């Protein structure tokens, strides 16, 4: 007998007990924390507040300590991140392709999805990747165009025509299946037990198939606290990138030199002003809930994104972009096992440079996706009820990945083509990563049109930033509220909006985007252990449900509640 059971049956003629369908989490019943788990909410607020105060009042100590910790963590655990992400991808693929497992529904049998496919894809894309994609659509291909493992080994020349195809193999590696399989697995592990077994929509519930009722107590509180902190830090990286590019765009459209400092980075006043506007709007949107603010903003994001892509297809290097999409997909799929599993060694030729490249790019991305996963995973679970595992996995992994690839090839391909042809004369490569998209437009279009399109990108960035912050605030409150996303949570929404603004602002002003990246990598490590356990838990949950179905044992909460303890004929 194996046990994840909470049912009343006394007969023992079935091989696997019915699933756990009740995971009580202690929540306060009055006052400011009414409906919240104080054991999760208060420690989470304290930890985030201490990070903010440390960065503001002890910037030198914070910078030195974070840098030292980052160097130790990212070098020591690089292999852990690489192989964990590969394992998550294998689990997602296996669940989707196994016929019986893939047909299981995230919800009751026959339940219809809440959102249309278009709205579902729009929300997936906007919350999961949007801001980073705008920054890295030029930044990533250009970076690998001038430096990647083949260039480091001396096999090809930097910034040459031969460097383009490998640049896209690595770009697709970082923005493709690895990111979306990580999000998909976390969302599936949460949504499966929440909507089939009626467990709370929170991180700890995903581990209930492994640890049962233990997740109701202290261990579950720790899991949710780690998830809240990782969420705030992971979203802070994305928000930081977006704010930098937002300010650069405002400067491009002519709103004044006060937006930039002497070094060409965002000025303190610009950062503060941008955060006041963006977080203020996102907090207001969060108060309206997922069905209103996030849904309509996500649809607007998708519409503006498609318009911008059409512009690059028509006015940019569209044919080259489509060619790069085809060759990039071919190279990516053909080299995926090699690219995913390689772990460079300092002892090999050019080892120091190769290891540093992998730490700066692949390992950073894996940590970023893992830190972002509680937010995106919870959000995906929230909007994916009623879909089968197969539709869910392929929808979450393939469609957004393909959208990222199209963005990277059409936008980044145009930037590379302008540099290779000499039209840019180095102006795009020399621009900062937050300004490279605008620099590409400046070369590609007439000044007036370039300024107009830059304004469009600023609006698109603003909607992406609001959507991401909006979603993160709601998800953090859902975790703190033991899976309940209803009720009066206005003051808590305001707190987390302000906390996110302070984390982003303090780190950008005191240490730039690198300070946020370092903090996020450190915060991602404990949650990576939780993600690994989630992978084991969802596999166990699905396998046991298939065994239950074969032997007539109920697999959903509604079926368990009506079960009389007698097995049905298989």
TrEMBL record:
The keyword Cell division does not apply. GO terms for molecular function: transmembrane transporter activity. GO terms for cellular component: plasma membrane. It comes from the Bacteria. Keywords: Cell membrane, Membrane, Transmembrane, Transmembrane helix, Transport. It is found in: Cell membrane. The chain crosses the membrane at residues 40-60, 80-97, 118-136, 172-195, 222-248, 268-290, 302-322, 363-381, 393-416, 452-479, 491-513, 519-543. It is a multi-pass membrane protein. It holds the Pfam family BCCT. The keyword Hydrolase does not apply. Belongs to the BCCT transporter (TC 2.A.15) family. PANTHER family: HIGH-AFFINITY CHOLINE TRANSPORT PROTEIN (PTHR30047:SF7), HIGH-AFFINITY CHOLINE TRANSPORT PROTEIN-RELATED (PTHR30047). This is BCCT family transporter.
């Amino acid at each position: 007998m194996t046990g994840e059971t909470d049912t009343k049956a006394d007969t023992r003629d079935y091989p696997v007990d019915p699933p756990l369908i009740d995971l009580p989490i202690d929540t306060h019943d009055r006052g400011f924390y009414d409906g919240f788990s104080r054991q999760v909410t208060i420690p989470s607020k304290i930890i985030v507040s201490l990070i903010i105060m440390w960065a503001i009042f002890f910037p030198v100590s914070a910078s030195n300590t974070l840098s030292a910790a980052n160097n130790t963590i990212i070098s020591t655990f690089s292999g852990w991140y690489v192989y964990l992400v590969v394992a998550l991808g294998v689990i997602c693929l296996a669940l989707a392709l196994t016929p019986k497992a893939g047909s299981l529904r995230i919800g009751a049998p026959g339940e219809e999805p809440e959102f249309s496919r278009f709205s579902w894809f729009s929300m997936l894309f906007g919350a999961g990747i949007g801001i980073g994609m705008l920054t890295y659509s030029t930044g990533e291909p250009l970076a690998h165009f001038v430096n990647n493992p083949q260039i480091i080994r001396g096999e090809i020349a930097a910034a040459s025509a031969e460097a383009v195809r490998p640049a896209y193999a690595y770009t697709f590696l970082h923005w493709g299946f690895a990111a979306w399989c990580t999000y998909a697995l976390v969302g599936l592990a949460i949504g499966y037990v929440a909507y089939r077994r009626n467990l709370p929509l929170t991180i700890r519930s995903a581990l209930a198939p492994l640890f049962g009722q233990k997740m109701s107590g202290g261990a579950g509180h720790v899991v949710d606290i780690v998830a809240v902190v990782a969420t705030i830090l992971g979203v802070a990286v994305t928000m930081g990138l977006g704010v930098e590019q937002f300010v650069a765009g405002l400067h491009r459209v002519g709103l004044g030199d006060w937006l930039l400092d002497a070094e060409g980075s965002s000025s303190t006043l610009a950062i503060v002003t941008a955060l006041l506007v963006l977080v203020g709007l996102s907090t207001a949107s969060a108060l309206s809930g997922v069905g209103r603010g996030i849904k309509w903003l996500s649809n607007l994001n998708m519409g503006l994104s498609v318009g911008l892509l059409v512009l690059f297809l028509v006015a940019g290097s569209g044919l080259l972009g489509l060619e790069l999409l085809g060759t990039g997909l071919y190279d990516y799929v053909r080299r995926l096992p090699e690219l995913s599993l390689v772990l460079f060694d300092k002892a090999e030729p050019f080892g120091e440079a190769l290891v540093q490249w992998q730490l700066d790019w692949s390992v950073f991305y894996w940590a970023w996706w893992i830190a972002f996963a509680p937010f995106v995973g919870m959000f995906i679970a929230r909007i994916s009820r009623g879909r089968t595992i197969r539709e869910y996995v392929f929808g979450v992994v393939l469609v957004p990945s393909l959208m990222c690839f199209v963005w990277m090839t059409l936008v980044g391909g145009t930037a590379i083509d302008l540099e290779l042809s000499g039209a840019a004369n180095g102006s795009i490569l020399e621009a900062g990563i937050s300004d490279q998209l605008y620099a590409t437009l400046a070369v590609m279009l007439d000044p007036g049109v370039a300024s107009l399109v830059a304004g469009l990108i600023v609006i698109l960035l603003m909607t992406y930033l609001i959507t991401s912050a909006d979603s993160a605030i709601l998800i953090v409150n859902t975790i703190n509220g033991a899976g309940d996303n209803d009720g009066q949570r206005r003051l808590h929404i305001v707190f987390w909006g302000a906390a996110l603004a302070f984390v982003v602002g303090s780190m950008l002003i005191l240490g730039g985007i690198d300070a946020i990246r370092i903090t996020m990598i450190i915060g991602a490590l404990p949650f990576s252990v939780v993600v690994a356990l989630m992978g084991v838990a969802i596999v166990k949950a699905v396998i046991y449900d298939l065994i239950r179905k074969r032997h007539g044992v109920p697999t959903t909460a509604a079926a368990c509640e009506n079960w009389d303890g007698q097995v049905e004929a298989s």
